[in-house]
Amino acid sequence: MNWIWIVLIVLIAGWIVWAFNRLVRYRNRADEGWAQIDVQLRRRYDLIPNLIATVQGYAAHEREVFERVTAARANAEAANGVAGQADAENAVSSGLRQLLAVAENYPELKANENFLALQEELTGTESKIAYARQYYNEQVRLLNTAIESFPSSILARLSHFAPREFFDIDDESRGPVDVSFQGS
After folding, report:
1. Out of 24, 30, 109, 136, which residue is the most buried by the measure of CB atoms under 10 Å away?
2. Could you give the CA distance from residue 43 to residue 78 in angstroms, rounded to a whole number?
3. Cα–Cα distance measured from residue 167 to residue 85, given in angstroms and rounded to the nearest whole number
4. Domain boundaries defined on the chain
5. What's the rounded mean pLDDT across residues 119-125?
6. CA within 13 Å, CB half, 109
7. How much is the pLDDT for 172?
């Protein structure tokens, strides 16, 4: 009879250690995912001034677009929290789409090697951001599921694990770029 209690206590203790370590692993992976998003966003922020300077050389009269992109970049760099960052990134993405749409009106700009290199680097960075966001959201889903599932929810509550927010973009940011050409 005593052996049964000992085995039961060892099994419960083993489950507690396993469940706690699983929660810690998911939390650390979510933190890692967010760090990767941050790295790629900073890379994109570094590209924006060069892209603006290149486009500005050909389309100086598009000042409003340049100011909007610059302001969106500054707001994104100062954003706090997942939701705030997502909102700021939506504004940056919208501004970049407008900036690239402006570039479509200038064939000599589209042929500029510096512009093409920046555009290619921006496209690669956007892909890396999308992958990092996907990884982060997957880790958040795993963490949130573990936190909300019984019986690990009891351990999560006692250990102060909190659900995380997903890093989502607006539906309008997912759509195609609307390019309108001015008649010559």
Report:
1. 136
2. 15
3. 8
4. 21-173
5. 93
6. 20
7. 53
